[in-house]
Design brief:
about 400 residues, 22 helices
Length: about 400
């Protein structure tokens, strides 16, 4: 007697459910490979991937996204309409939005419900939804189709340590980026930038990534006039000082690209103090009043840095000679705070405040150096004080030797 195909499938599913152990889910949802669930008879590998993701933990199953009849083990019946087998990028966006654009569903998880609206307004959404160009990514280009993990999960493609590499999958593709005139060295430049080193070398998960500056679903480049506001989300005090000065006014007028006038977009390099004037000369000609201001600013910044370094060396010397450095260290922290404030105020180009902070750094640092100088004087005084002691000791030895010599002559 020939067994039907459905019987073979049912036996296979029951055997599979006995050997495949899904990851335990939160208490509110029990996830299992149900032997009566027809989808896994053919798509067990997808179901296993799905179980590892957050959607499975929330109770979703195959038919919630793909439709069909999961109670059937026959292909035709299981794929009965409505059924969405392999959705296109545009169909995927609408499918994800059917839940993620519903405030009533998203509220309970603390998730925003405006991702679709943001995506439509983005360059990616414009390409994919408005112009019908598949170069624009859909949801599953950044999030796995089945193993969807939350951003805070280190395995997720959108985790801070992974998101920039995820963007680079497309943005490092020369063939894809060439028609849009987009350079393909952005990820490499970012990795060696101040932000990239902070993330990848120091493990600082709060360091900015692509989505912190461009947005995740919005994914838009900031116009030059908006750059200080984008950077100012983290560099709040720098932004405040920047708009206090002439460069802030020029940015508002549209004649200066904000922070990008001095710092590159993805390199975000720190401008060394000794190259400040050279940086300013990229816009201002040599010998102009602006160039003179730049020269004075560079001299002030370099001097403050040297003063602080000298104070640090003085403390090291005091420690080396066993001196109490409690007071010196407190002063040094004050000098450091003033020097840090100086690096902020420089963005305002306020010469009075810059000079005042420079004097504070110099005065405090000089005070620490004076402590070391006093310590040196004390060391010399101590050495001088030991001279009479050595003289007396030598005299005692000398007279003892003479007396001993006299005793020997007498005995002879």
């Amino acid at each position: 007697m020939r067994w039907s195909r459905q019987v073979y499938l049912a036996i296979g599913v029951m055997a599979l459910s006995a050997v495949v152990a899904p990851r335990p889910a939160p208490a509110q949802v029990r996830v299992t490979l149900d032997s009566t669930y027809g989808c896994v008879s053919c798509h067990a590998e997808h179901r296993q991937s799905f179980i590892a993701g957050i959607h499975s933990e929330r109770g979703l199953r195959c038919h919630d996204c793909h439709g069909g009849d999961p109670s059937s083990f026959a292909i035709d019946a299981g794929h009965s309409q409505p059924f969405l087998g392999s959705p296109t990028k545009r169909e995927t966006v609408q499918l994800c939005a059917s839940c993620h654009s519903d405030p009533n569903q998203m509220r309970q998880y603390g998730l925003p419900a405006d991702q679709l609206a943001e995506f439509r307004a983005s360059r990616h959404g414009e390409l994919l939804l408005s112009r019908g160009i598949d170069d624009g990514p859909g949801c599953t280009d950044c999030h796995d189709a089945h193993t969807i993990l939350p951003p805070e999960d280190a395995r997720s493609d959108v985790h801070p340590s992974n998101i920039s590499a995820t963007c680079a999958v497309c943005h490092d593709d020369v063939e894809m980026m060439d028609p849009y005139g987009i350079p393909v060295d952005q990820f490499e430049t970012y990795r060696s930038s101040e932000h990239g080193l902070s993330l990848y070398e120091e493990g600082n998960a709060a360091a900015p990534t692509c989505v912190d500056c461009h947005g995740s679903h919005a994914a838009l480049p900031a116009p030059p006039g908006e750059v200080p506001n984008v950077c100012g989300q983290c560099h709040v005090l720098v932004r405040q000082e920047f708009y206090e000065g002439p460069h802030g006014d020029a940015t508002l007028e549209g004649t200066l690209p904000g922070c990008l006038a001095c710092h590159s977009q993805h390199g975000t390099e720190h401008i060394p103090h000794e190259t400040v004037q050279a940086t300013c000369r990229e816009c201002h000609e040599n010998g102009t009043p602006e160039d003179d201001i730049a020269g004075a600013l560079q001299e002030t910044l370099v001097q403050a840095e040297e003063d602080l370094e000298a104070a640090g060396r003085s403390i090291d010397e005091l420690v080396r000679h066993g001196r109490d450095v409690t007071s010196a260290r407190l002063r040094f922290r004050t000098a450091q705070a003033n020097q840090l404030q100086l690096t902020l105020v420089q963005h305002s180009l306020d010469s009075l405040r810059i000079e005042d902070l420079s004097r504070r750094v110099r005065s405090t640092s000089r005070g620490i150096q004076e402590i070391e100088e006093v310590s040196i004087e004390h060391r010399w005084e101590h050495k001088l004080m030991t001279i009479p002691v050595w003289f007396l000791a030598l005299a005692v030895v000398f007279f003892s030797a003479i007396k001993l010599s006299g005793v020997r002559r007498t005995s002879e």
